[in-house]
Structures are given as structure tokens and as C-alpha cells.
Design goal:
The protein has 191 residues and is an all-alpha fold. The protein contains ten helices and no strands. It has three domains: 50 residues, Arc Repressor Mutant, subunit A (Orthogonal Bundle), CATH 1.10.10.60; 42 residues; 82 residues, no CATH class. Helix 5 packs antiparallel against helix 6.
Length: 191
């Protein structure tokens, strides 16, 4: 029943659009009543992320089952891989959901919230690493402006600040600069 509701919802989202599809439309196509829908999903938005609760429970159980000998960073990375596997279990659905969330602003709220938190933390940490010199608000506002520009919710950043792609490089603090630069150049295809 749950899978039938999800399939019906996505069929209608693709045919009519998310905003134009109602819960009544979904249950009619699935051949069930409204009560059945709400037994599985609290709202139309929840049918877009039907596996969210299961994935969260799986990650929580996985992290809770860690032993004292488990290395914490490795364990958290393995938990992140659980999320990846969830997406990879059904690539077609994952791609459909990704396209839908890019089109519907209300569905991007969680992604936007995560980006705002990450931008805030980055700006704040930059200021803290400078031993509190300068204006903390400037660093945070700059980072938040990039988020606003990326999601179309604010002024568009200048052309030289608009990323077409994002590259994240992880390096040990003591790594020689030449090694970090080489990694960036390799990633960007400039070697």
C-alpha cells in the first residue's frame, strides 16, 4: 500500500506538477481512501521522502551499536554510507525526487536550512580562527549571501563568486601547501 501511494504520487507529480497534485488525486490513482494515505504519510510533502524515517532509524541504530573499539570518525563516515546506499537502492526514484525537490521551493527547505547552518558555521569558525579580529558579521553575512545567491533567495553574487561546481578538499592541517594545491589542481583537471 505504501509503495502504491508513493508510485501514484510521483506519477502525478511528473504528469501534473507537485503543486497541482492533491492528496485526493493520489488516493484516487492508488485506488484507496484518504484515511489510508494519512495512515502512512502525515502530509503530501512526506510522500516525497517516504524512506526518511527508516533511514534515520537505521543510522541511529548503527551509531548506537558502536563499540568502544570503533573509531568515531570512521563510524560516522560508515553511517553516511548508509544514506548513500538508501539512495542507490532505487536510482530512478532518487533522481526523480532530486528533480522534484529542485523545482518545488517548499521541498528544498531542509536542504536550504542545512546550507544556512553550514555557511553560518564556516563564517563563524573563520572569525574564531582569526582570534576574534575583525567583524564576525561580515564573514557570516558573506557566507549567507552565497547561500542566498545559490538558492535564488537574495542578491546574485558577482560572476566571479558564482560557483558552477563545488570542490571540497579535506587535508590534514600540517600537510604541505604544495600537496593541497596539487590535490585541488587534480580535482579541477588542471594538472
Amino acid at each position: 500500500m505504501r509503495e502504491a501511494l508513493v508510485a501514484a504520487a510521483f506519477q502525478l507529480f511528473l504528469e501534473r506538477g507537485y503543486e497541482q497534485t492533491t492528496v485526493d488525486d493520489i488516493v484516487a490513482l492508488a485506488g484507496v481512501g484518504r484515511r489510508s494515505f494519512f495512515r502512512y504519510f502525515p502530509s503530501k510533502e512526506d510522500v516525497v521522502f517516504p524512506d526518511h524515517e527508516r533511514c534515520l532509524a537505521d543510522m541511529t541504530a548503527f551509531l548506537s551499536a558502536a563499540g568502544e573499539d570503533d573509531e568515531p570518525v570512521g563510524r560516522v563516515c560508515d553511517a553516511a554510507r548508509l544514506v548513500l546506499r538508501m539512495y542507490a537502492e532505487n536510482p530512478a526514484f532518487s533522481v526523480q525526487r532530486y528533480r522534484l525537490t529542485k523545482k518545488v521551493p517548499g521541498l528544498r527547505a531542509d536542504v536550504i536550512a542545512a546550507a544556512v547552518v553550514a555557511a553560518h558555521n564556516n563564517g563563524l569558525r573563520s572569525w574564531l580562527r582569526s582570534d576574534g579580529r575583525g567583524d564576525a558579521a561580515v564573514a557570516v553575512d558573506h557566507a549567507l549571501g552565497l547561500v542566498q545567491g545559490a538558492f535564488g533567495g537574495g542578491p546574485t553574487p558577482p560572476a566571479d563568486e558564482r560557483p558552477e561546481d563545488v570542490v571540497v578538499v579535506v587535508s590534514r592541517r600540517g600537510a604541505p601547501l604544495w600537496r593541497v594545491v596539487r590535490e585541488i589542481e587534480t580535482t579541477l583537471g588542471r594538472d
